[in-house]
Amino acid sequence: MTAKGIWLTGDPVADGLLTTDDNALLIGMVLDQQVPMEKAFAGPAVIAQRMGGRLDVAAIAAMDEDEFVALCSARPAVHRFPGAMAKRVRQVCQVLVQDFGGNAANVWGDAATGAELKKALAGLPGLGAEKAAIFTAVLAKQRGVQPPGWQEAAGGYGELGSFRSVADVVDEESLAKVRDTKRAAKAAKKAGEPRA
């Protein structure tokens, strides 16, 4: 765990859960797709609240898929695409339970290098190569998980002092800078320019 708290949602309850629960942080990363990052990373706290106050990956993994989809689809929905994302979160929870003792920290705990860390993350449902690179940076910058070569594995997201992704968000100001960087990258891509 980290000494400093994580600030990704602006909600003290949601951010507190992200700070203290590696499973919540991972699930937030899985949900971080086609919704504002604050909504994605608040998702684990919403799921926990709807499950009686505790984010229990074993219970999610064991839950009937339709039941978990209904839980995530209840208004306000956990995600813009609650059905698809509920299934993905449940798949991640099943892998965590089956292969990692129900603890996301076990996914990255034995990684001796940044490349191993990124590979382990990319092997999870819902985390492709880019998300694995971003989450490698999140773990390094926000959790202090920094095996040798983590910056190379994280690519541009590993640059210190950059504002490229959720890994760099620590407050409202840094969130605004990340949004500006993403807007500029999107505009450049649309214009056919090389990505920053």
Strand content: under 5%
Catalogue the unreliable spans.
Answer: none
How many domain regions? 1
Shape: globular
Q: Helix count?
A: 11
Tell me what the structure shows.
The protein is an all-alpha fold and 196 residues long. The protein has 11 helices and no strands. The chain has one domain. The two termini are 32 Å apart.
Short description:
The chain has 196 residues and is mostly helical. Helix content is 61%, strand content 0%.
Please give the structural blueprint.
Elements: H1 12-20, H2 22-31, H3 37-50, H4 57-62, H5 65-73, H6 82-100, H7 105-108, H8 114-122, H9 129-143, H10 150-154, H11 172-190
Notable characteristics:
61% helix, 0% strand, mainly alpha, 196 residues
